[in-house]
Amino acid sequence: MQTAAIGRRISGSNVTINSIHPGVVDTPLWRDWDTGIRKCLFCCIKCWLAISSVEAAKCSIDLTVNPKHVGVNGLYWVDFKIATPNSDARNKQKQEKLWETTLELVRSYLTEEEMKRINGEVK
User: Fold this and answer.
1) What residues does each domain of the chain span?
2) How far is CA 74 from the centre of its chain?
3) How far apart are CA 30 and CA 52, in angstroms?
4) Alpha carbon 104 to chain centroid distance?
5) Separation in Å, CA 52 to CA 27, 38, 92, 113
6) Tens digit of pLDDT for each residue in 30-57?
């Protein structure tokens, strides 16, 4: 949702933003899943579904360095393909509400100049 909201705001600039779902990745995040049924469940998931962190990074790297993606902005990617997010994530009103709520939460951490840049008032 944030990706779409930001993508609209930076459209036409030389900056791009996209959202990527890498899938189930075999990382140390799973290290504490080491007991009972969780261990069994994880082992099954890891064996059948999990990809390496190198494989998971390939889409991000491709979107970053491949010239064919210049101008591709505000989209959701799964397995190197543009995917359609769920209906809530596509709802522009909800995207804008999330954007405004986020700005309120971070406002006290930003300078007035930064807020103006974020709001497109200063280039």
Assistant:
1) 2-84
2) 10
3) 13
4) 21
5) 7, 20, 34, 41
6) 666 666 666 667 666 666 677 888 998 9
Rounded Cα–Cα distance for residues 84 and 117 (Å): 30
pTM of the model: 0.73
Question: Quick one: tokens of 82?
Answer: 């543009």
Q: What is the pLDDT of residues 49-82, one digit of tens each?
A: 778 889 989 999 999 999 999 888 899 999 889 9
CA separation, residue 95 to residues 15, 22, 26, 52, 86 (Å): 20, 22, 31, 32, 12
CA distance 37 to 30: 14
75 alpha-carbon distance from chain centroid: 9
Give 68-97 as a DSSP string. Answer: GGTT--S-EEETTEEEPPPHHHH-HHHHHH
Q: For the chain, how long is the longest CA-to-CA vector?
A: 55
